[in-house]
Design a protein that fits this description.
2 copies of one chain form a homodimer.
Chain A: H1 2-12, H2 33-38, E1 69-80, E2 84-89, E3 92-97, H3 102-112, E4 119-128, E5 143-154, H4 171-176, H5 178-181, H6 185-208, E6 212-213, E7 230-233, E8 239-243, H7 248-256, E9 261-269, E10 281-290, H8 294-308, E11 322-324, H9 325-332, E12 346-347, H10 349-353, H11 358-365, E13 369-376, H12 379-382, H13 385-399, E14 404-408, E15 414-415, H14 424-434, E16 441-448, H15 449-469, E17 482-486, E18 491-493, E19 501-503, H16 518-521, E20 530-535, E21 538-545, H17 550-560, H18 569-575, E22 582-588, H19 589-596, E23 623-624, H20 627-631, E24 635-637
Parallel strand pairs in A: 3-5, 6-9, 11-17
Antiparallel strand pairs in A: 1-2, 1-4, 2-3, 4-5, 7-8, 9-10, 10-22, 12-13, 13-16, 14-15, 14-16, 17-20, 18-19, 20-21, 21-22
């Protein structure tokens, strides 16, 4: 029956090129089924051809297979000299030789009529390539397959672009024909690496550490003021679900429920309109556990990443380095430092204090006034003139912070807007602190600590990117610098009203145990038990130890944040019902994978991404819905 | 730092009961971290206490642990005789003995003030129970823990119900306090088994057979006429996403994209309003592969289920039995036969033809007219009088099919509405065909084949359920009967207009290769390459070989189904772009797990289910949204 169905299927669906004496299609898919499925051991390598028409993938044949009869399925990549086909699947390329005899000439003729990217099934024998004709650039280049039969399983129209990574195509064309783009080696690699890495994460969490994979709802109650949440109208008039931004409440409730090690590769939603490199739906590896402290979660996540890290991407340190928020801000001017390169922010207040110039003295008189500097090695060579000016102007526009550029010429003399004010003594003092030497560029900012650091932090990244553009290698592209940033402030002044406080992360974050008293005296000084995981200057994860005491939670919500606690009454009630101490983290999977595969955008690690305006360019979603169809949802579109 | 944080944390969050000379809390979470995380081998058992405050779970201590110092975390289940605590976690119960000395009396006094379900951390030593005091009903009943310290990590208010499986509570109360319900041993078992089984499925698909886990979008384009789809308004006026009912289009596009073995544990959505035992969001194990035929998918799924099947639930056959749709309908009157018990539908047309009674002759004159029967062994004992009548009336109401009940008395004589018409000869003929003997009940239906079978099929299930109620064991509760149903019709007449055809499953289903010609001559006779997987009479999966030829797909959509092909132009275009032959399946995970754990409802295998009206009773979702908040979505609620 299998044989019959298989052959019928082939015949029913396009061309079938038969040579005289063609054998019935072999049912390659029975080969290993029994032996594979009864073993409960994870094999070293997967069986990529089980249950399928093929016996092997196009990429796996080698010298050792010579003499074997094989069945291959794939796409026609090339057609060479009327004699060779190159067949492609996700695994690689293989050269197929058409028979030279009379039957073969019929086959050749028919193959000439078949377009590239048609789907073929080839039956034949693996033979060595004639001496001298091996192709060392091809993994299968030592051999080729002498075809006995070629079946055309499906033909292909003229495509909008060739399936070759080398062929340039616009991103909108790639998105419109995503199913063609997915055939590219790069996207195959990205999506397969993502799958593989998530699988390893699951093994680590589920099999090694007893975590339970729990699916939480995505149709949930709207968060009051949750402007970034998608709404979902229901069949009940005026009632809406909301698509949550994270399973935060559910994972805490699971802890209260005694399901004390939870994880989920969770779909999350954020309605942000047009934002570059964000997606309206995204995925996070969501983890929560009970009876754990901050360091416990950090070690768990480090183990998780080491275990799931792709072999070809090197190894990760044990443990990961940790930096406080305060240090990150003062040395890197940002809470997610890219520690792959130096150019750290240095304090030169003491040295510059001697300078009687007005703007320096004025800056120092301000609260937390200081002078900060970064040194760009060889910066004088690569960063000058208009290019440098435009970067400094960008910083000025963004942070209202003047930056002073000081150049150390190749002869060791210094050049700066300060003229003679930059005395030899001051030059010496600055060189002593910053290590400035010939060809270096020093950039100084005078002002309040946070502003100066933030501006220099942004400048540091801009300069690094400029230097990389100029071909100065700052970072080894194969380097992955993980970093924990800890001891964040628990509260921040609200932007619109700095007298009021809001949570730096979310209101369920526990205060640092050393700062518990400050909660009553000076909440702005309370550090939190929040931690961010940073990779190469990108935030790839964040989490915290949560408040498990209902009184403390109520105090934070009511007294500090002035929120209406009734809206979270079910959560407070849960905390009163025997909630264990707990904490967790969420890793941004799309971002993490995109950094690992060095993709330019998270769209390159998502099978069917939305455009930056939130459109699916293939199906043209979102789309209009007729007023009639909207009736059953009890809504209508508001007239403009 | 870890120690400090740990101890501070305990102190910051509730009571801390200290005995003189208390040691600092041991950081149990460092124990195995290094050795576990560096191993890439999946261990036999998970480390359930890694990274946590505890050294062991409450359920794992045994005689072999006697003498060990342990740290346990859990919930206070009982407090006995002023001297014993029973601590509970997901893993089990453990008895803790408070010290009998003077320090202990202080501890006892404080423990008396602590409510049940408070969260405790106990440090102590494992000791054997005094001879004769072992509790064989408790897995840890041979030992107890002599406490040195007890820390109260959190207290518990008076709860709406006790955390004991034996305590009855209404389902709405359970849903409102789902975080308490999850503490029950039954829900812990259900959710953990679900996680474990899904993990095994992933191992099988991903590690053993090279399937790639790909996440597909849930914000997609609305299907024309997709009345059961949820809508999602966007920030663009009048534009809506839709939450798809399955990733069907995406998985086919992945095949066109050469990602030739796809799977996903996919969240799906269906807006059905109030339906018992359905959920607005549900989960399916979604699989698709290329270069495969129907039998290939069936074998793959069988291997998947055998591999992931919980050990404690026995073993599954290899292969699973298969039945055609036609046979299922004629023998069981339903397309998802429960084959755990007999009582199959038998044909007695030949025997009854001799009967000259009007209603029989009339039935036989109809198209496909026949007489069908089922035999209920010992039915005459358990099914009689009003109980039987009401079941027969139910069938009459539902199918407009009269059922005739024939009783074989204990003395072997027959009783029926036919009176003398039921001659001895006919009795003999019927007994010969059906095997009817003393105490049996025979139920006969005369009419068109499909109606008679469907009615008897429903009757069969009703009678079985009645017999089970009467304590007649028809099915071993530990029996799992998987069955493939194949050779479904490809098209069905539309209910509202039987002249027109609609797809029996979906329009992408491939015709049976043997019936390709019928597509042009008599589409109603075309069988499909669709297959359903049935477990104990429930459909737990369905799939098909898909159409990969664009011409065939166009013909089905345009000529047979009379649909507007422009709406699916991107799919037709994809099929023209070198689409491989492909097929797949989707398994309903919620239903599958609920049958395996014998849950009454799928709500018992979902962590946070919605009520049958689609409500989250804990948070009260869905909820009203203010007109002001609706503005940013450009919608308003239609006035009544």
């Amino acid at each position: 029956m299998a044989l019959r169905t298989g052959a019928k299927l082939l015949m029913s669906c396009g061309f079938l090129l038969r040579r005289p004496g063609m054998r019935t299609l072999r049912a390659a898919h029975w080969r290993n089924a029994a032996s594979v499925t009864t073993s409960h051991q994870t094999p070293r390598t997967s069986d990529l051809s089980s249950f399928a028409f093929r016996s092997h993938t196009c990429g796996e044949l080698r010298q050792a297979h010579v003499g074997q009869e094989v069945t291959l399925c794939g796409w026609l990549q090339y057609h060479r000299h009327d004699m060779f086909l190159v067949l492609r699947d996700f695994h690689g390329l293989i050269q197929v030789v058409l028979p030279a005899d009379e039957d073969g000439s019929h086959l050749k003729e028919m193959m000439n009529a078949v377009s590239l990217e048609s789907v073929l099934l080839v039956e034949g024998t693996v033979i060595p390539r004639p001496p001298g004709q091996e192709n060392s650039k091809m993994a299968t280049g030592d051999i080729e397959v002498q075809a006995k039969e070629v079946h055309v399983l499906n033909t292909c129209r003229k495509l909008p672009f060739e399936i070759k990574d080398s062929v340039k195509k616009s991103e909108s064309l790639r998105m419109q024909y995503r199913y063609l783009d997915i055939r590219s080696a790069q996207l195959q690699y990205n999506l397969r690496l993502r799958s593989r890495m998530v699988m390893k994460m699951r093994e680590y969490l589920c099999n090694q550490h007893g975590f339970v994979d729990v699916e939480t709802p995505t149709l949930f109650k709207r968060t009051p003021g949750g402007a970034k949440e998608f709404l979902v109208p229901t069949q009940e008039p005026g009632k809406f679900y909301s698509l949550p931004q994270s399973p935060q409440q559910f994972k805490q409730l699971l802890m209260v429920g005694g399901l004390d090690r939870y994880f989920q590769v969770a779909r999350c939603y954020r309605d942000e309109g047009s934002r570059p490199d964000r997606q309206p739906e995204f995925t996070q590896v969501d983890i929560e556990m009970s009876f754990v402290d901050q360091l416990g979660i950090q070690r768990l996540v480090e183990g998780l990443l080491r275990y799931s890290w792709p072999e070809e991407k090197g190894t990760l340190p044990d443990p990961f380095p940790t930096m406080t928020y305060a240090e990150a801000m003062s040395s890197y001017g940002v809470d997610k430092p890219d520690t792959r390169f130096q150019m750290k922010i240095m304090d030169v207040t003491a040295q510059m204090r001697t300078l009687s110039l007005g703007f320096v003295q004025e800056a120092l008189r301000k609260s937390h006034g200081c002078v900060k500097a970064i040194r760009v090695p060889e910066g004088a060579i690569y960063l000058k003139g208009r290019a440098l000016d435009s970067i400094l102007q960008l910083i000025k526009n963004k942070y209202n912070q003047d930056i002073m550029a000081v150049i150390v010429r190749s002869d060791g003399s210094w050049k700066s807007p300060l003229g003679k004010n930059l005395s030899e003594e001051l030059q010496k003092a600055l060189a002593g602190t910053t290590g400035a030497k010939a060809e270096d560029l020093l950039l100084l900012a005078a002002g309040p600590h946070d502003t100066a650091c933030t501006a220099l932090g942004k400048l540091r990244l801009e300069l690094a990117s400029k230097l990389e553009e100029c071909g100065v290698p700052l970072c080894d592209p194969n380097t992955f610098h993980f970093l924990w940033v800890v001891d964040f402030p628990l509260f921040l002044p609200k932007e619109e009203n700095p007298e009021e406080l809001e949570s730096a992360h979310h209101p369920f974050t526990a205060p640092h145990p050393d700062d518990m008293e400050l909660l009553y005296t000076d909440p702005t000084k309370v550090r939190s038990q929040h931690y961010d995981l940073v990779l190469n200057g990108n935030e790839v994860g964040g989490g915290s130890i949560r408040i498990h005491n209902s009184e403390l939670q109520r105090r934070v919500l009511q007294d500090v944040l002035k929120e209406d606690v009734n809206l979270l009454s079910h959560l407070l009630e849960a905390l009163e019902s025997g909630a264990p101490p707990h904490g967790g983290i969420a890793l941004g999977l799309d971002r993490l994978i995109s950094i690992i595969v060095r993709a330019k955008s998270i769209r390159d690690v998502i099978a069917f991404p939305k455009s930056f305006r939130g459109y699916d360019l293939m199906s043209n979603a979102p789309d209009a819905v007729s007023a009639e169809d909207l009736q059953s949802y009890h809504i209508q579109v508001t007239p403009k």
